[in-house]
Amino acid sequence: MIRLPFWWPHLQPTFGEPLDAGALATLHTEVDRAGAAQMAVALDNHYAARSQTFGMDIEYYPSGAVEDLWKRLSDEFKDDPSVIAYDLVNEPDVSTDAMWQAMSNSMVKTIRENGDQKIIWVEGNAYAGVDEFTDNGWTPWITDPNDHHVMDASDNIMYFRARVSELWWKFRRHDESYL
To answer: Is 77 exposed, middle or buried (0-12, 13-18, 19+ CB in 10 A)?
Structure first.
């Protein structure tokens, strides 16, 4: 399985408007290529939570904007056998866990009301790692009538970024100790 990232502003440059035909065609082409290679796809709404997406963080988007995006994507892919999952928002980072829980449940509801049975991939708020899920009395918050979802933790992301950065600079300096 691959997570196929897309950048929301390329796919839907204006909230509530139709998806961009060219960007949507590219996404369909990539899904078709993955399917032809016998790979399952999780559509990954990457960078959706960050201010570089629309100049503001996701919690300040217009009401219903992210649900509108997922309704449109569900319309496009709910019958595509290559797409098995939707990653609602990669690494959400909103003010409170309660806000993220309400937002993610609203997205799940929108997808399910569209008759879509795909797996829904929900990440924890604020780069939640396994320790945040387990040490803080975490309980599942998704209300999914199909009970067809997964929770995702972004564990060790800072270590990973630091290590990649270190290896990159060694490579750039022709320091072969990274091998």
So the answer is: buried
End-to-end alpha carbon distance in the chain: 28
- 87-110: pLDDT as tens digits: 999 888 888 888 889 999 999 999
- Domains of the chain, residue spans: 2-178
The pTM of the whole model exceeds 0.70: yes
Per the CATH hierarchy, to which homologous superfamily does domain 2-178 belong?
Answer: Glycosidases (3.20.20.80)
Own/partner long-range contacts of 113-118 (Cβ < 8 Å, ≥24 apart): 114/71, 114/74, 114/75, 114/78, 115/78, 116/74, 116/78, 117/78, 117/146, 117/148, 118/74, 118/77, 118/78, 118/83, 118/84, 118/85, 118/86, 118/148
Q: Crossing angle for the helix pair 65-77 and 97-113, nearest 10 degrees?
A: 40
**How many angstroms separate the CA atoms of 58 and 77, rounded?**
23
